Amino acid sequence: MTGGEEWSEDTSTASLSAELYHANGSDPLYNTFTSAGTTSVPRAYHTNGILLPDATVITTGSNPPNVPYETRVELYQPPYLFKSDGTLANRPTISSVPTTSIGYSASFSVGTPNAANIQKVVLIRPGAPTHAFDMEQRLVGLSFTIGNGTLTVTSPPNANVAPPGYYMLFVLNKAGVPSVAQFVQVCPTGGCL
To answer: Which domain, by its residues, includes 120?
Structure first.
């Protein structure tokens, strides 16, 4: 979470703090926020933050006082991309994903030379934010089994969990570091319209 202000469209009251919300019930920090650094540009109403396939976040927009709109764009690199000493973390890689659409409640293979070290596989719907909200984006955790250089992943059960369309597929290692995403298409059996 980033941006926002105490008084509408008053960037002098804007928060420059970025925070991570811990939503996983098995996380010892469950249902809390932790600091994820700061931004340089105050973001007020009409702000957007979009997760990119390389797991960075681009922040844009704002309605600062007496200015039509904020033209500066920031690229935010979350702490999960770095080791504690500030150097870049070692990222898992994805070597292959299905080239055709993935049906619901189906198994599919994800190639990764890091299979033994993968802790999570997730689908994240690309963002479509407006007015500081993104009602399109969602994160769907997927179950998987580990093979030799491959993961056998189970797709979402239905369109209520993951509406048809394109998703970014990330694998995360045991340190919580994400790969660069690969796009996959989720569709009902028979294909997308």
So the answer is: 107-186
Span 26-68, pLDDT tens digits: 778 888 888 888 888 888 777 788 889 999 999 888 877 777 7
Residue 98 located in a structural domain = no
Residue 90 domain-assigned? no
CATH number of the domain at 148, please.
Answer: 2.60.40.10
Rounded Cα gap, residues 136 and 146, in angstroms = 30
Sheet holding 118-124, edge to edge: 139-142, 118-124, 165-173, 182-186
Judge if 174 and 124 occupy the same domain.
yes
Listed residue (35, 47, 39) closest to 76, CA to CA: 39
d(CA 4, CA 59): 12
In a domain, residue 59? The reply is yes
Q: Indicate the pTM of the whole model.
A: 0.86
Based on the number of CB atoms within 10 Å of its own CB, is 69 exposed (0-12), middle (13-18) or buried (19 or more)? exposed
Q: Is the dihedral of CA 182, 121, 123, 127 positive or negative?
A: negative
